[in-house]
Amino acid sequence: ASPPASGPGTNHAIDDPLTSERTRAWREDRFGMFIHFGVYSHLEGEYTRPDGTVCRDAEWIKRQCRIPQAEYERFAAEFNPAEFDAEAIARTAKEAGQRYIVITSKHHDGYALWPTKVNRWNLRDHSSFDKNRDILAELKAATERHGIKLGFYYSIWDWNDPDAVHPSTFGRYKERMYAQLKELVDNYQPSVFWFDGEWSTDRPSNPWLTQDGEALEAYVRTLDPKIVVNNRVGKRRLVDGDTGTPEQTIPAEPVSGQLWESCMTLNGSWGYAKWDNRWKSPADLTRNLISIAGRGGNYLLNVGPDARGRIPAESVDRLRAMGSWLVRNRQADAVHGAGTPGIVAEPDWGSVSRKGDTLYASVYRWPGAGGSLTLKALSGFDVRSARVLGSTQRVAVSRSGDTVTLTPSGAPTNDIATVIAIGVAPPA
Ligand code: JFZ
């Protein structure tokens, strides 16, 4: 099949990603695990220069700290993530309530985590790692065991391939890139391609700033039309690919007309950085997830395994806390498969999502004794019931004009977010 005709601002998906069967699971999943892992993980965020001074960065360390190519290659030769445990990672994701994993198959440094045949700059051919292991194959098997999906981040910007930077040689790079993408699809059947790097402002001018992104997206569709593709495939437009990708930020309002996914770090770095202790609190992270679902998006939350391949304990602890909030009182109903309520505005005391005839009001700031919570109705609908998940507590509901008032009779069930399920009957 030939790619659909297109013009500027066109969505090049083979169907409407907002409603397509192809994207249904992705739309309901709401929560995924991002994994940044590569040669940079071996440095664990610190490079000591020959003169003894120390430079700190994470997955950009080669660039930011100006590590000479030969030296970076020596680090790669030492890289031995022997404790990379795909089963443990998939279990951690599953227990957190994450339904897919997106791992850096290749970051900007060009290093492939799988045994690519395109070059030797990969974990099998250029490392101290067990030559019989393939961590992407291990992750594929483990995610399948746990019923979660596997996707790949792939940087189309490549610092390592000399042909990638000159328009005259770019075609040769692109052929290798296309061959690698085919390997990834043939070997691991990913559910998602999460491209990155089209925004590079390097000189000579970045070929991805022109129309190559459209061809890339069309190419992926020929490999497997079911793959969900993010929007960082070409020049910046709102809805190229299937999904928008706000980074380290949550849109302030419910978003309509576009699938989107906020990607975020648990601390301040994507790749592992041993000095980075800017950990977000479990409450903030869980509320982020709840608010993102209420605004119609997905949350792709990052972990950076260390040099040995282990997810830091601080990350595992936070993911566990999120998972235990989700299973408690079946509060996951407010997230998995839920989306923008449409019929009420987002309140300042929390977030509201909706699944069918149920509104889930997740309360971050519970009212004091005798106090109440109000919701602004955006359309006419009847309220049938209101109850606190996991509690017999009575919640009185009244309505006056466009204001719906909820008056709980007791205490919150937990201090991250207490969920009030509200049965509604919106007009057809
Ligand atoms: C990119 C990478 O450079 C980074 O290392 C990490 O992988 C992250 C997930 O993606 O960083 C970006 C990409 C896009 C923007 C900013 C940083 N952007 O759109 O502002």
Quick synopsis:
Helix content is 25%, strand content 21%.
Describe it.
Its EC number is 3.2.1.51. It comes from Amycolatopsis suaedae. The structure is a single chain. With 428 residues, the chain is α/β, with parallel strands linked by helices. It has 2 domains: 21-334, TIM Barrel (Alpha-Beta Barrel); 350-425, Immunoglobulin-like. The protein contains 10 helices and 17 strands. The protein has an 8-stranded parallel β-sheet with strand order 7-6-5-4-1-10-9-8. A 4-stranded antiparallel β-sheet has the order 11-12-17-14. Helix 5 packs parallel to helix 10. It is globular. 45% of the residues are buried.
CATH architecture label of the largest domain: Alpha-Beta Barrel
Question: How many strands appear in the DSSP assignment?
Answer: 17
Q: Tell me, briefly, the overall form.
A: globular
The profile of the biggest β sheet is: 8 strands, parallel
CATH topology of the largest domain: TIM Barrel
How much helical structure, as a percent, in the residues?
10-25%
How many angstroms does the end-to-end distance come to?
Answer: 39 Å
Sheet with most strands: strand arrangement: 7-6-5-4-1-10-9-8
Strand content: 15-25%
Task: Please state the oligomeric state of the protein chains shown.
Answer: single chain
Mean pLDDT: 92
Low-confidence stretches: 1-10
The SS-based structural class is alpha/beta
Q: Supply the number of structural domains.
A: 2
Radius of gyration over C-alpha positions, nearest whole angstrom: 23 Å
Number of helices: 10
Bound molecules: 4-nitrophenyl 6-deoxy-alpha-L-galactopyranoside
Provide the succession of SSEs. HEHEEHHHEHEHEHEEEHEHEEEEEEE
CATH class of the largest domain: Alpha Beta
Instruction: Supply the CATH superfamily name of the largest domain.
Output: Glycosidases
GO molecular function: alpha-L-fucosidase activity
Function: Alpha-L-fucosidase is responsible for hydrolyzing the alpha-1,6-linked fucose joined to the reducing-end N-acetylglucosamine of the carbohydrate moieties of glycoproteins.
EC number: 3.2.1.51
Organism: Amycolatopsis suaedae
